[in-house]
């Protein structure tokens, strides 16, 4: 008998990442970039997690479908993910919506974003397709999901999370039998199905699907010819297979990657400003829920060549200091204080400025004596000297995009309006 560990299924798989969504709940953060291209964790982008999971799982053929304002995302992919080599039987394809099927048709749904590129997929002849959402933060070994898919004889295997039933209405939710065969799949139900034996919990779709490639292509062609279909995996393909085939749930707990000190199965949809801010700030904890320092499961990204971070001045009231913070390369903290904050690449802090619980995206400049609390600052913003944010909720709401939880999103256009 062949030892599967010597013949990983991932080597016969292609990962196909759906990265075309805007993510409008992130407000102005996605005015000029797609949600998967949004910065996260000090130096990475959201899409790097799905791509890193694929690489770390052993998958060496990857496609990324893009659509909404894709330039920032495509540039990142070209710079950071160009190490896969055809001569090693590897591939990395960026697949913008380009009216390949019709002069008038962009990607009309998640399934259509794969259907329109069948002619690119087929020459690679992958045996399995791993369909991934490009906008979630998590670490997962797809090889284990592939193994379950083959062992169960499923037509499709659906990655799922256990979530409180009261919170499940925002997901695609599945009912399963005792063998995790899916008996019902509904998108955003008002009354989510409960898990067997656990009436307070539901199984929610992660937007991760495994298919045999030939079967997937058959289904995509069938769906493309189906009147009234929205050509969506969660809305059309999966419900059809639940009724007419064999769909099996794969629980995230079975393949979640956790370092020794990570106590929970970490998965986050950072789709709102509050969730985005919280997930970033969580990384400043002494023992964060998500370990970004795990060399056994690294998060790959584009790493700019930069000077080291620098902290200068050592006088009372003017001391360059960072406390419980993540500080990236090319940052200069000049007689300023950053506490429980993330400073992305190239951030400059002027003397006497102070940030607390701040997510400061690349190449921002914090003016002298500015005081900022509980903020997300978009890339390249120049904060004026003496600006105070986070101390007067009414004034903050007039000038910036303030959430119900009191997080202020600050963009260049908002600062320009202050002048």
UniProtKB/TrEMBL annotation:
Spell out the reaction equation it catalyses.
alpha-D-glucose 1-phosphate + ATP + H(+) = ADP-alpha-D-glucose + diphosphate
Concerning SUPFAM superfamilies, the annotation shows:
Nucleotide-diphospho-sugar transferases (SSF53448), Trimeric LpxA-like enzymes (SSF51161)
Q: Looking at the keywords, is NADP present? A: no
Q: Identify the NCBIfam families for this entry.
A: glgC (TIGR02091), PRK00725.1 (NF001947), PRK00844.1 (NF002023)
Gene3D superfamilies assigned: Hexapeptide repeat proteins, Spore Coat Polysaccharide Biosynthesis Protein SpsA, Chain A
Q: Which CDD domains match?
A: ADP_Glucose_PP, LbH_G1P_AT_C
Where does this protein hold alpha-D-glucose 1-phosphate? Answer: 107, 172, 187-188, 205
The record, for HAMAP family, names: GlgC (MF_00624)
Spell out the InterPro entries in the cross-references: ADP-Glc_PPase (IPR011831), ADP_Glu_pyroP_CS (IPR005836), GlgC_bac (IPR023049), GlmU/GlgC-like_hexapep (IPR056818), NTP_transferase_dom (IPR005835), Nucleotide-diphossugar_trans (IPR029044), Trimer_LpxA-like_sf (IPR011004)
User: What EC number(s) has UniProt assigned to this enzyme?
Assistant: 2.7.7.27
Q: What class of enzyme is it?
A: transferase
UniProt-recorded name of the protein:
Glucose-1-phosphate adenylyltransferase
In this record, what's one Pfam family? Hexapep_GlmU
Which keywords are on file for this protein?
ATP-binding, Carbohydrate metabolism, Glycogen biosynthesis, Glycogen metabolism, Nucleotide-binding, Nucleotidyltransferase, Transferase
Q: Pathway membership of this protein?
A: Glycan biosynthesis; glycogen biosynthesis
Summarize the protein's role.
Involved in the biosynthesis of ADP-glucose, a building block required for the elongation reactions to produce glycogen. Catalyzes the reaction between ATP and alpha-D-glucose 1-phosphate (G1P) to produce pyrophosphate and ADP-Glc.
Cite the position(s) of the site with description Could play a key role in the communication between the regulatory and the substrate sites: 67, 106
Question: GO: which molecular function terms?
Answer: glucose-1-phosphate adenylyltransferase activity
């Amino acid at each position: 008998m062949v030892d599967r560990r010597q013949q990983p299924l991932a080597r016969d798989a292609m990962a196909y990442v759906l990265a075309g969504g805007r993510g409008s709940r992130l407000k102005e953060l996605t005015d000029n970039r797609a949600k998967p291209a949004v910065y996260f964790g000090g130096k990475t982008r959201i899409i790097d997690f799905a791509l890193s999971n694929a690489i770390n799982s052993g998958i060496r053929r990857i496609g990324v479908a893009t659509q909404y304002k894709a330039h920032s995302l495509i540039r990142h992919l070209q710079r950071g993910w160009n190490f896969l080599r055809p001569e090693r039987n590897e591939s990395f394809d960026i697949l913008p919506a380009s009216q390949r099927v019709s002069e008038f048709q962009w990607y009309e749904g998640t399934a259509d974003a794969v259907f329109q590129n069948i002619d690119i997929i087929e020459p690679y002849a992958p045996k399995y397709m791993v369909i991934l959402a490009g906008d979630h933060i998590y670490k997962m070994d797809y090889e284990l999901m592939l193994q379950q898919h083959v062992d169960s004889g499923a037509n499709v295997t659906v990655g799922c999370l256990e979530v409180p039933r009261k919170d499940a209405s925002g997901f695609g939710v599945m009912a399963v039998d005792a063998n995790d065969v899916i008996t019902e799949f509904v998108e955003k139900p008002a009354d989510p199905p409960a898990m067997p034996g656990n009436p307070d919990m539901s199984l929610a779709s992660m937007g991760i699907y495994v298919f045999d490639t030939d079967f997937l292509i058959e289904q995509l062609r069938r769906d493309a010819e189906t009147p009234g279909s929205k050509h969506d995996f969660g809305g059309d393909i999966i419900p059809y297979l639940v009724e007419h085939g064999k769909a099996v749930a794969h629980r995230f707990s079975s393949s979640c990657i956790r370092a020794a000190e990570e106590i929970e199965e970490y998965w986050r949809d950072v789709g709102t400003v509050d969730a985005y801010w919280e997930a970033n700030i969580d990384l400043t904890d002494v023992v964060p829920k998500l370990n970004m320092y795990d060399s056994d499961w690294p998060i790959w990204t584009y790493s700019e060549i930069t000077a080291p971070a620098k902290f200068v001045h050592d006088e009372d009231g003017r001391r360059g200091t960072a406390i419980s913070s993540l500080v990236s390369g090319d940052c200069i903290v000049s007689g300023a204080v950053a506490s429980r904050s993330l400073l992305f690449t190239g951030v400059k802090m002027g003397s006497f400025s102070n940030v607390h619980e701040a997510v400061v995206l690349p190449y921002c400049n914090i003016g002298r004596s500015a005081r900022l609390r509980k903020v997300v600052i978009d890339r390249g913003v120049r904060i004026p000297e003496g600006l105070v944010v986070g101390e007067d909720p009414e004034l903050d709401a007039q000038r910036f995009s303030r959430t119900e939880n009191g997080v202020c999103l600050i963009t260049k256009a908002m600062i320009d309006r202050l002048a």
